[in-house]
Amino acid sequence: MLDAKTLREQTLAELRRKLAFDGHVWALTDPVSRVGTSPLADVPGLSWEELPRMVRWRYLSQGTRWTDLIQAKTRFISLREATAGDLGRSPGWREVQQALGVVDVLTAAFWDRFGCWAWLDLWRTAPAQPFTRPEQELLASLVSVLTTGLRRSQARTFIPTPRMKPQAEGPAIMLLSPELRVRLRTSAAQATLQRLNPPDDPDAAITAIPAAAYNVAAALIAHEHGVPVGPPSSRVHLGAGRWVTLRAARTATGDRSADIAVSIEESTPAERLEVFGLAYGLSPREREVLSELATGADSRQLARRLVLSEHTVNDHVKAVLAKTGSPTTPGAADHITPIRLAPTVVAYLPEAYVVDSVTGTNWEGVGVAPDVVSPPDTVIETAVAALH
After folding, report:
1. What is the DSSP string of 26-66?
2. By the 8 A CB rule, do 297 and 167 touch?
3. Which of 76, 97, 147, 319 could form a disulfide with 110 if both were Cys (CB 3.0 to 4.6 A apart)?
4. Is 13 left (phi over 0), alpha (psi -120 to 50) or beta?
5. DSSP secondary-structure letter at 329?
6. For the whole model, what pTM was predicted?
């Protein structure tokens, strides 16, 4: 059971034995917005100062972006083939890669019916030769199994682990110039960004800006130029079941010369639940059932809301439990399963409704003294108030 970082590192090490490359960028993505997060990169000759420029042009270079591959329903493409041998047709090559001596880039997109989970660029620089067709097909043969592995590694981030230190107080905000140069950042933003992508050089911790923030800003720029990747937002796992959501917006709406504000905030339960369902491969109906259960609805209420029979609802719940590997809690009361939505928030979802075969009733309101007493019609509001 490898985490996403270890899986990528070991794959690159094994891949290098069969397929030579001089540099790489392997980024995870938000499965819905498809914006890059948590990049694993080694680009010889590229300085930290040039990183925002590279990210910006990667999002603007149509034809070899991961989203272009998804739209074309393919898994890989080389820069040389995409440009018919004329690399100058690629804005990213003209603006960044040409100066670094790049002669070809092999791109793979890791996507399935549940979302986009990552993209990989392998770089070759002079005097190396472009990627051959057999080399491209070698990478293509690994994409499917790696996609499943990356998706499952995201699912495992919801398994409880020791809690992280609390986030620094105050709003986490970064202000970037139109060229993605940092103008200012709050102390909370700095602390969070270092967790997203800590620099290898400890002395650079104060000045290094992880690519997660650049990616959402670049996604905004791509949208403004009519070549969108997805909404300018992404959800990123920090560890210990904790997720943050990054969003980018202009400080002046519609003005491309205005600065870009990137906010970083704790992901909402709904945002985490969406990733949870996709990462575990739940069907659209199963995700719908899971979302309803998370509101506190029992199987009868859920059946009415979704216009299904209770039997069908229970079948969906069982499927969710089987796919997520969640244990059930047996006993005289309703069967439930715990699903961790955050380090300190666990949703207990009802799996079945127990009825006494003699009396034909349930044991609701009998034998259990709640820690917080609330009338049935306001129990959700009471729970939400307690969370705050």
Report:
1. EEEE-TTT--EEEEEEE-TT--GGGHHHHHHHHHH-TTSSH
2. no
3. 147
4. alpha
5. B
6. 0.80
* Alpha-carbon dihedral 260, 263, 269, 274, rounded to 10 degrees: 30
What pLDDT digit, counting tens, does each position of 54-74 carry?
Answer: 999 999 999 999 999 999 999
Residues 319/329, Cβ–Cβ less than 8 Å: no
Cα–Cα distance measured from residue 239 to residue 156, given in angstroms and rounded to the nearest whole number: 11
Q: Which residues contact 12 (CB under 8 A, 6 or more apart)?
A: 24, 26, 40
Cβ atoms of 103 and 20 closer than 8 Å: no
**pLDDT under 70 in the chain at which residues?**
159-170, 196-209, 326-371, 376-381, 383-388
Over residues 145-176, the pLDDT tens digits come to: 999 999 999 998 886 555 455 555 567 899 99
The pLDDT of residue 384: 62
Total residues found in the chain within this entry: 388
- Token pair of 128 as six digits: 């190396």
Sheet containing 76-78: give its strands across: 36-42, 23-29, 115-125, 102-112, 76-78
b/e per residue 59-82 (b: at least 16 CB within 10 A): bbbbbbbbbbbbeeeebbbbbbbb
* pLDDT value at residue 370: 63
